[in-house]
Amino acid sequence: MLFLKLVATYLVEPLFLLGLVASYILYLTRIKRERHFFRIAVNRDFYELRHFLKHGLLLGISGSIVTLGLGLTLGWQVVVIYQALACLALVAGIQANLAFLALLLTGLLAGGVAYLNPSWWSFDKIVPSQLTGVMLLVVLYLAFKLVLLRAQKFDWFSPQIKAGKRGRRIATYFWREVSVIPLVVLVPGSWLKVSGAWPVLTIGHQSYSLFIMPFLIAVSVKLAKQVPTMALGLYRKQTWLLLGLASGLTVVSYFYPSASLVGFGSLALLWLYQAYRRKQADLRADFWYVETNQGVRVVAVKPKTPAAKMKLVPGDIIIECNQQLVNSEAELYQALQANSAYCKLRVRGFNGELRLAESAIYAGAPHEIGLILFH
């Protein structure tokens, strides 16, 4: 009964509800953008919501095992500060990734209140040792982010067309994902039973309550020139670096809570620098998803189609179709008509290598091959 009450309270938390809305807005924005550029949605699957729920459940279970195993304790003031900043991050930047910044600002604000104790702060004093708990949340956030980056597929990158140099168009790609993870934490005091914190144990004169805290995770990746594996590889390396630093700072802050303030500031600066490095890496890359005059550039591939079975990927250039040279979309579909039941392509990949790709297609409907091209 207690568990059901905790879950019911979590499901009406503002951050969880805003996360649901954000995933729906990301879906609508993606579909609208793709239909604007291609007159069709590349992937109509509502994977944003599916990932929101799946990651929330799986990461919530594993994360709660960690938080309870380590006895993570957060004052209710810290919980309120975090949820307010996380909600603001969603409202102010659904298309961006401000979740990590909201977490770091929580640590800085809570630390400032803990040590300065300003006169305008009318709530109970924040214990400095709780800052170690916030730093542990930073570690969990980065670990969860690595899970999302590892599970990523290029199918989930949404293309967008923009004008390039010399009159040729360029495709850029976006992947944005939001999830709210239910983390079980301990909150000092038996406060606010009506708000979902429920007493579970008492040590000395201090009682502790269980609380399921909504924990915002967001990822945002943009590609303009890079091969996806390279861009994501850099992102993962940077996240591992942040995770290593945050883990060390968590240990230090356990013994010296005041070091947490320097730690949160250092992580924020490193996070901003890494974002700058990712942008520079994309600008320096050699590959462009640009419209070509020799062959037909693949902009995107619809999942579960003949093109997907042929393992075509965005950036491939189709040189030949059914033994006919093609240099435009019209020529490609004309060549497909030569054999309405089968398709044989000659393709140039990222590295310039030529390869053959072939598959059966839907008879009488060559446009259902699943290719998204420059229009």
UniProtKB/TrEMBL annotation:
<dbReference type="InterPro" id="IPR041489">
    <property type="entry name" value="PDZ_6"/>
</dbReference>
<feature type="transmembrane region" description="Helical">
    <location>
        <begin position="74"/>
        <end position="91"/>
    </location>
</feature>
<keyword id="KW-0812">Transmembrane</keyword>
<feature type="transmembrane region" description="Helical">
    <location>
        <begin position="129"/>
        <end position="149"/>
    </location>
</feature>
<dbReference type="Pfam" id="PF17820">
    <property type="entry name" value="PDZ_6"/>
</dbReference>
<keyword id="KW-1133">Transmembrane helix</keyword>
<feature type="transmembrane region" description="Helical">
    <location>
        <begin position="197"/>
        <end position="219"/>
    </location>
</feature>
<feature type="transmembrane region" description="Helical">
    <location>
        <begin position="240"/>
        <end position="273"/>
    </location>
</feature>
<feature type="transmembrane region" description="Helical">
    <location>
        <begin position="170"/>
        <end position="191"/>
    </location>
</feature>
<keyword id="KW-0472">Membrane</keyword>
<protein>
    <recommendedName>
        <fullName>PDZ domain-containing protein</fullName>
    </recommendedName>
</protein>
<dbReference type="InterPro" id="IPR036034">
    <property type="entry name" value="PDZ_sf"/>
</dbReference>
<feature type="transmembrane region" description="Helical">
    <location>
        <begin position="49"/>
        <end position="68"/>
    </location>
</feature>
<feature type="domain" description="PDZ">
    <location>
        <begin position="298"/>
        <end position="339"/>
    </location>
</feature>
<feature type="transmembrane region" description="Helical">
    <location>
        <begin position="6"/>
        <end position="28"/>
    </location>
</feature>
<feature type="transmembrane region" description="Helical">
    <location>
        <begin position="98"/>
        <end position="117"/>
    </location>
</feature>
